[in-house]
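Task: encode each sequence below as structure tokens.

Item 1
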Amino acid sequence: MAIKISGETVVDDSKKGLFNDVVVKGGAGESGEITLNCENNSHGVKLKGPAHSAGADYTLTLPDTSGNNGEVLTTDGSGAMSWEEVVGNEISGTAPTSPSQGALWTDTSEDPAAPILKTWNGSAWVAVGSAAPSEFAPVIDDVTLTENDTTGARFTSQTFDVDVNMLIEGVPHSQKGLKGEVTAEFNVYPASEPVSSNVVTTFPNNNRQTWSFSWPQYGTARVYATNPAGFPQWYLMEGQNGSTLNLRSGGPGEYGDTQAYHGNATSFRQAVYIQASGTYYYIYSATRYKDNNGYAKAFRRRADGTDDWTGFNPGYEMSPPVYDDVYDVWWHSSSSGSNSTIRKGTTHLSNDLGEQTRGYSSQSGTGIIALGTDRVVFSRRNSQNGRIYCEVYTRDAGSMQHLGSATITTFNANCTYLNFAGGWFFIKVDGTIKKSSDALTWNTVTIGNSDFDLLEVVFNPSTNNIEAYGQDYTNSKLEMWTSNNGGATWVLAHEDQITSTTTPNNVLFGGGKVIWYGYANGYYNEHYYPRNEQTLTLSGTGADYSSFNVGDLIRPEGSTSLSERGTITSISGADIEVESDYIYQAGDKIEAVYPTNSSVSTRYLVISATGAVTGTVGSDPGYVSVGPDTNQTLTFPATFDTGNAPDDELGAGTYIKVSAQATNTSGSSEFGPSNIVTPS
């Protein structure tokens, strides 16, 4: 150490052992100070100690280096000094790389027009004034798609993992949404130009037609299904001499070719068509109206159309099973001995998701199943006391969960109807109608006059009304009543006088018609009216519609729903008449169900709330909410709704990618598409 004054050494290195601490004393009321002059000694700067009153006694130790440009000296509070980055009034537009607590920056990543001032809380960037990052709008950093099984089929019965990497989550976790797209050689389906207007023949109307023929009562019922080629088809199911079950095509007002099955089916009055996603489609005789101990008999055909309808015995079914196409599960009931049992399974008539025996039962008025928005209801009749009960279960893809039981009657009775429409469950017991929002608390409903007998309740989305179809048996009238307040009050919308010899006992909708049908006085009877027959006027002159023909099976463009299919009944210039339960709106396009050729294109996956892939559509369906977790799974089925296996519909070389969305109350974030996966 050497100290020089005016260029002369006062203390040199030889005395460093004696002078390692130089003290500059104060005096005359002033603290000690050191003056550092310029090279001409004409001016200088001073380092001065604090006043005596401060009682200061500390040491400042300089850092090891001279620091970086723009950095300042800071102390750790114990005298150790270091160089630190300056965070000044000009706030950075990007997050500082080594922030100290309290550092600020302006985040414009979500909306450049609405920047968010954020500060470092010691572990995360939070909005100024916020306590934790979980309260912010979510931010997705990456989405990764992974093929789970690289050795099996490409898509058929395969699963794919989707990993959503979150930079910032929500409270408690942001809701996630997914959409996926596949690029492959797809079939090309003819499509029209947009519909410009539509004239719909709605019901009620007075255009009734009646058909009646003599037939012994061994069971007769109408059903609207699809034939093996996939076209809508009317069928008439009939029991013959108590030993043969026939399925006749044609109608209303006609029947033709017959499929016969020796199944000993008698006394049924209704038939139900079940469009499942598995190998088979089904037509069941509905035995829930029976007065004896017979069981359901049925026909089935392969969904791919490789065979015609074939009769089979489904076993001890009380009523037709119910297929839940939202969760791809089956619900069905059976009678074994003196007990009634409800079962839930992933395949037809299976019970791998659970079963529950609900006590004594008898066939009459037992075993009807109805699907509500979030629950499943099962009606049963106790054979010992004759009372009607409703058992309520959760509606989901998991195992059975019983929510409770409701006593509908405290006396001997029969249940002949149970359904869900317009947000309400409706049940009919010995002619009395009740309704409930949860199937646990029921209230009596009065529809029309005391002679009105309910046959069917449906919700009409075009009017937002609940419609009740039935008849006045006493006066031989067909009636339809409507309610716009959830069934609290009803208005008579249709009344038509018929003869007592043609009184029916069921109502069916399909193919642009509504039919009252049934057996009475030795005759099978039908009364049918047009319903949803439509005359579509298309944009243009009609010259571009040469790919369409009368009788073609059609659907709204991009639709995969079997219930939205219809047929063309006539073509005249730009006017096309169709029969369809789907009401076409201006802007819709007609698309053929069957393709004319193929080309490479991109389509979007149809994804359920559980991540189940049911098919593809041509237009972007948007994000489907699949839950709050950051890891999702896409599951392909054994067959699509088209009847094709995914591997058949998505050929070799198809690639898949996904996009994700995260949403909470503060905002949302989207990311995608992800990486591309090409299953081999």
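Item 2
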Amino acid sequence: MRKFTLLFLFLAMAGLSYAQVQVEGIPTPVKEGPVQNAQHITPEKAGGDVFWSTTFDWGTGEDTTSWDLPEGWTIVDNTDFGNPWMWRSPYDTLGGCCTHQGPSPNFITPMDGFITLPADEYNRRDNIGTSNAMDSYFETPGIDCSDKSSVVVKFSQLFRLCCGSNTLSMMVTNDDGVHWAEYSCLFGLPNNRVCDLRYRNVEFNITDVAAGMSNVKVRFYQTGNSHYYWMIDDLRLTEAYTNEVVLEDFWAEVNGGFDERVGHINYWPKTQMGMESTSTLGGNIGDYEFSGAVLNNGMADQYNLQLQMTILRNGEQVYQDVSDPLQLWTLDRDTLTVNSVFLADDYGDYSMTFAAISENEEEVPENNTKDIMFTVTDSLYHRADFTAEASSNTEGWVGGSNAGDMVGVFYDIYETSEINSITARIGGVTDSQFPEFQYVLLRDMGDEDGLVEWILSEIFPADSTMEHTWVTLDMEKDGETEFLEPGKYIAAVRFWGDDGDENGSNGMSIGWDMDNREGAYTWNYRFPDESTFHTNKMNLIGMVFNEKGGPTESSVTFNVDMNAHIASGEFNPGSDFVDVAGSFNGWSGSDPLTDEDGDGIYSITLDPFVVASKIEYKYRINANWDTSEFADGGPNRTYTIRYWNNINNVYNGGETTGVESLSLIESMNVYPNPTTGDFTVQIINSEISDMLITVMDIQGHVVYRNQISRVMSHTEVISKDLTKGVYFLSINNGKEVKVQKVIVL
């Protein structure tokens, strides 16, 4: 009998996402050559105001491939292969051997086109593969900044790069190309990954080379890349703010008992924390050090700038400290480290907030703070978070993806513990290859003996019903090897062919936490050449120990924002009430939620709930199902119980029927959402218009498109065989775009 269980306790929380620190700072823009100093002037200005912009609306007529290069713009290809930047319509999907990409879902104006360097297409002409490196740029006309005391460049981008050494640069000149200032748009990201979400909307302060200058030109230049693409849209020049500190990057670094810290760990077993470290770092295993990279992106110097760290355990503050203060001149960068370390001493969900603070009044506070979490559990040891932005196996394009290959994650064991199982999030599964898989725990025995297969699970067949799910397999215990002594181990997934056959492709992949940058803790094994390598791909693979002691029950606080419905007259605070009903209470309904501070957000705390159980719920007005959320057949909300649960919602997603809308799209309703398959979209316009309906996956691939002509209202069922994950439904009527996230379970 094969042992096969779906993941429980914290592993059931696979749908939750936590921000994760980046471990490489944003590179400082490199200045090349003595660019003429900008002439600083002092007219009245408004921080953030746009004074020059383009949305790359270069298309001509009904032919979506026809476009004209506007006057003053320049496109140059320095190669002999004919690989220039080009304008692309949103209706065109970039092609090539490995690319199926439409416009980025992060573009503000995707439907009037964008500009791109489609390297993959260029290296797949006539279905013949080549590897010619790109060397091409496009350049704006001269822009008059002579009356500007500050200049900031903003744009949206999406890229994926391979192979070789790549350069993505924004370059600025004020003397018609005699000298250039260069700013990296790559942000230190490695090859063969889609641009991280945090780097898709870019901002560079170029005041020192552009303010007061009458002929500023901006160039976007790519060299080295031979595959995938770089695309850009919504290029703007704005005035800078006076006071704008940016927390560019941040690090929560764990003491792992070595001479250097080992990055962030999302789920710690309590038994593996707290012992004294004998390394040169000193301290204790599991204590955190905090630092952050800050940029003064405003025009005023910043005084007494500090990094403040605040930690809440289950919603209650347990730690706060700051770095030493410093002065940061305009456009300068520095790194700050909080003065003390923090060691968690109890089970719980720990929320960590990094904040850049100074004595100046901040004008853009939203880019001053970052939040991440970690959890102290009784049994789960998991470096990654639970969100798989992508999946990976053993990189078949370089000789992997063979039956017998393995992917794994290193774990340090500090205290003897009994392992029960290994858990992993299954990514893609190709049924036609009859894949099977096995969990393997390897032990690092040192230089002499190397890695040894220590304990195994049985081999289990995989099929497409497992895609995007967490699967836990029990390890085969013998009364001895399951008791893990202190040392270094690898929790791995081994891929087999049909019935364990060592021939053929493995036919499956494992979820990949793209936010995690701890490349030294990733591991790949390629059969049959027995080569091993690190990939920078943190696979979602963890260990479950035979330990207990963590909380088994927890309360839940529900908060629902009723302001839109109060404004529309659909909810009267004096006579109406809102409650919450769902599977956790047999749909009978709670007591009325209360709004003690009068801010329109109603709350109630209910208990007890079993930790890791899944609840479904809706909010209702006056306990009436006819006035409940999504009453027209929409989904229930879902949530998995943690140690600490503070749920924030907006009633009915903010959709009302009682407020006159100034928007052309008066309403957009999507149901059911989340869905297990088909879903319906319903759109009502305030006037007759054309509409483009698109659905994109989280990587920006267009998976559905439908053009509707001259309608006031429209309803359609979107029936696509979508894999589990997050999608973005976009409605564009030529004047505005509305986007709704759709979750496929």
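Check on item 2: The domain at 245-381 is CATH 2.70.50.60 (Coagulation Factor XIII; Chain A, domain 1). The two ends are 29 Å apart (CA to CA).
End of task.
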